[in-house]
Amino acid sequence: MPLFQDSQYFSINGGVFNDYSTVTYGLGPLAYLQQSAASSASHDSQERYPPQKCHIETRGQALHHILTWARLPRQDRRKSVYWLYAPAGMGKTAIAQSVAEQCEELGLLGATFFFFRLDASRNRAEKLVASIAVHLCESLPDLKPHVEQVILSTPTILTKSLPTQLQKLIVEPLKKVPQPEGDRIVIIDGLDECIGPDPKEVDPAKEQRLVLEMIDTLQSFDLPLAFLIVSRPESWIKHGFKALPRLLNATEAVDLYDISNGNQDIEIYLRSEFTRIREGSEISSQWPSDKDILDLIKRASGQFIYATTVIRYVDNPWSSPKDRLKTILASETPPDHNPLETLDTLYLTILQQSPNHELTREVLSLLIFSQVLLSNNGRSRGIQSSQTDICQHMFNLPPYALRGLHSLVRTEGNASNNPFYHTTFAEFLQSKHRSKQFSRPPEHDTIIRILRTCFALLASSESVEMTLCARDSRVVSSRIWVSLWWFLDFSAVADPLSIMDELVSCNFGDLLSESVEWTGGSLRRVCWMPLRHYRDPKPSILTRSRARNTMVHLHGLYDAAVVSQLSRLDSDFQEYLKRLIVAALTTMPHPAAPAGMNLFTIHQDEESGHFNLQFEGRNVGDMLTSAALGYCVEPNRALTAVFRGNSKRFIKEWQRRLSLMFLQCFRDDFIAFLADPARSGPHGWNIIKHSQLVSLTSACFQYAFTEYGPIYPLLLRSFGLLTLINKSVNDVLPTLTALYRLENYSDKPVDIGKRYIKVLADGFNFYWAPTIIICLLLENAEMATLVADVCESLYNERSSDISTKEMRTIRNDIRYYKKLCKAATLDPKSYFTPKESAITKLLAPFKRTLT
Predict the structure, then answer these.
(1) What are 619's strand-pairing partners?
(2) Which of 255, 238, 234, 351 is nearest to 302 (CA)?
(3) Which residue(s) pair with 230 in the sheet?
C-alpha cells in the first residue's frame, strides 16, 4: 500500500522523502545536534573566556608528561585513558586548558568538555555525547556526513538514552571512516563537577559513573580516540574505575603531585608575579624577601589556587602591596598544614581585612544567589554588565563594598562570567563551619530581599538617562523574579499579601516578554505559587483572593501587550496567522484559504539541505520570527513535533502531531488568550473553540507517554490546557481516566512504565495541585472538582506503586483540595453545586474494567 494512501491536505516538495523525517525547522543536522550540545563546555568557548591556563614558565614537567602520552602513535600507546587527579586548587583545569591548546596546535585534539558544577549547561552528563560528536565532526571532517545521516534517519536520537546516543552518534560513524594517522585526544575536565540536574534527586556519584561507563564503551572499540580525564581524587570516582575492569586496565592513573615540580613551579610563579607588581609600584628590588617567598610556598602546600589568590590580593590598586603581603604573612598557619585549612585561613584573612564584616557577608551572599540564578538556562543572555556591577546597582551597595574582595571576586566581564575566581571560594562560603562569621544568612531572607529588590526596580520607569548597568539590572530582575517567587515559602512570609501587591505594582513595559519567557509561558502558574504551602482554607481566603486579583492583573498586562503586537501586523498577515492556527488544530481547509493553498508542506532547501515547515507556500518559522511575536511564540523552540519519529506512522500520527506542532510553536499564555472569548473576543482573535481545546488536550496527554514525547514538558502543558476548558468539562474525562492504564496509549515503549511511576510519585504537587488551584482562581469549580476526583481515584488505584509515606501525604492534600472545591461550589459565581459527585458514576465503568 502506498505510504500516503488516503491522506489529505498536505504535500511534500523538494528533495527526496525517504524513510526519515525532518529534524527541525530551518536547521541542518549538525546545527540541530549543536542545539543539544553544551557550547560553553568547550576549551575555546566564549563563556569560559579568558580561560584558566598555566603560567608560561610553570607546569613544564606535568605538561611534558601528558603531551608525551598524547603524541604516542597508536601502536605504542599502552593505555588509551589518562586520568590526572589532584585535590582542589592544584591547577588541574589550567593544565587541561593548556593541554587542549597545545593538542589543537599539533592537530591531535578531538574534543573537549569542561564540567562546572555551577553552570547548568555543563554540570551534567546529558549533553556530553552531543558535544563530543560535534567536536569530532570538526576535527575529523570525514565523520560529518555519517553523523548527519544518523540524525536524518533517526531524528529522535537526542531523546534516546546516552548509551544509545553514544553508539549511534560516535561509535558507528567512527567505524565507517578511514583511520587517521594518530589518535584524537578527548579531554574531559572536572569529572567531579558533573553533579547532575539536581544533586538532591540525582546522585552525583551515579552521574559521574555514567560518564566513566561511556568512556569504557568507547575505549572498548578499536576507535582512534584517547581520553584525558581530569578530576579530584574522589573515592567514588576511584571506585568507578575499579568497578569497570576493562576501563581500569586501559587507564594510566597519575597523581598531579608526582609529575609536578610542585614547590618549584609555585616559586617561579610567585617570583615572576611579585616582580611584575614591584616594577609597577616602584618598590625596592629586595621585596619580597626570600624568607617571605619560602613562607608562602610552605603555606601553599602545592595549591596553585593559594598562590594566585595571594597575588590577586597583594596586587590591589587601592592599597600598598607591602602592607597587604604583611597581612597575609601575619595570619596563623594551621599546625597540621592541611591544604584545605590553609586555603580557608587565607580566605578568612582576606575577608577579615574588610572594614564592615556584615556588609562583606551581605555582598557575598547576594553574589552566590546571582551566580546560581544567572548561570541557569541563558538568563545572562545579552547582559553586558558584570554580576558584581549589577549587584551593586540593584542593592544600592556603597562604592567600597567590593574594595577588599578583588582577589576573590571578579569585577570585570559580563553577566555570563562566574563572579568568583575559583570554585573553592564558593564552596567555602556555603559551609558555615569553614566560613564562620562570613557564612551566608538564611536562604529565605535572601530570597525575599532579592525578590523585593527586583519588584522595586521593575516598578520604576525606564528612561533614556539610565546607565547601561541600570538597564541591565531591570532586565535581570525581569528574568529572575519568577525563580525566586517559585522558591519562596509564602507561609513563612510575615506579610504575603504585600509581596503580591509589589508584583502588581511592577511596570513591566517591554520587559513583560522577558518575564513571560521565564514563567514557562504560563502566568497562571505564577499565581498559584503563593497558595501551595497552605493546608487550612480559612486563613488563606484573603491570600486566595489576592492571588486571583494578581492573575487578573497579569492577564490584563499580557492581553494589552499581545493585542499591541498583533495590531502591528498588516491585515494579510493577521489572516494568514489565523488560518495557520485553525489548520494546525483541525487539519481541515479554512474557508478563507486560497484554493489549494491551505496546506502544510515539508521543503528541503537545495543549497543548504535544511528542512523547513511551510504553510500556504510560506516558511512558518521565518514568518513568525519576522513578525516579532515575542509574547506569542517560543523564541528558541524549533518546529520539531510534526514529523519526529518513524515516518511509517506518519499518517496515523498526522493530526496528533499537527496539534503538538501548534503547542510547540506558541506560548501557553497565547493559547489561553486565543481560547478565552472574554479576553480575545473583543479583538477578533477568539479562534480556538471548546472542541479544539479538548482534542488538543487529549493529543498532548497521549503524546507525552509515547517514545517521542518529552514527558515532563508535555504533561505540564497538558494540565495547563485543562484549566482553559470551562464548559462541558466531562468531555475530557476519558482522557484523564486513561491515565489509569498505560494500555490506552499506543506505541508505548518498554520504559514508559518506569517513567509513568516517576510521574505519579512526583506529579501531585507539580501537576494535579496547581491545576486544581488555578481552576479555582479562574472560578472554574467544575473542572477543579473533576480533576480532584479523578486524581483521588487515580492515586487510590495506583497506591501500590508509591511509598506509604508519600501516599499518606498525597491523600491528606487531596482531601484539602476537595474541601476547597466543595466550598467553591457554594459560591454564587461557581458553575455548579453537586449534591453528590457525578464523577463517581462516570468513573464506575473504568474502575470495573480495572478490577
Answers:
(1) 614
(2) 255
(3) 84, 189
Please say which residue of 507, 541, 564 terminates a domain: 564
Rg of the chain on CA atoms, in Å: 30
Cell (9 digits) for 543:
491570600
Residues 6+ apart with CB under 8 A from 593: 579, 583, 616
Q: Is residue 844 part of a domain?
A: yes
Q: Give the global pTM.
A: 0.64
Q: Residue 114: pLDDT above 90?
A: yes
The three three-digit cell numbers of residue 661, written as one number: 506542532
Residue 573 grid coordinates:
498577515
Same domain, 105 and 164: yes
Q: Please check whether residue 419 lies inside any domain of the structure.
A: yes
Q: Which pLDDT value is given to residue 706? A: 59
Q: At what angle do helices 92-106 and 60-71 cross, to 10 degrees?
A: 40
| Among candidate residues 352, 384, 416, the one where a domain is terminated | 352
DSSP 8-state code for residue 243: T
Tell me the average pLDDT of the chain. 77
Question: 188: closest CA among 211, 168, 171?
Answer: 211
Instruction: Residue 283: give the domain boundaries.
Output: 263-301+303-352
CA distance 760 to 767: 10
Taking the CA atoms of 267, 269, 274 and 279 in sequence, report the sign of the dihedral they define. positive
Residue 728 grid cell? 462541558
CA distance 4 to 25: 22
Q: Specify whether 609 is located in the same domain as 675.
A: yes
The number of distinct structural domains making up the chain is 5
Asked whether the beta carbons of 361 and 351 are under 8 A apart, the reply is: no
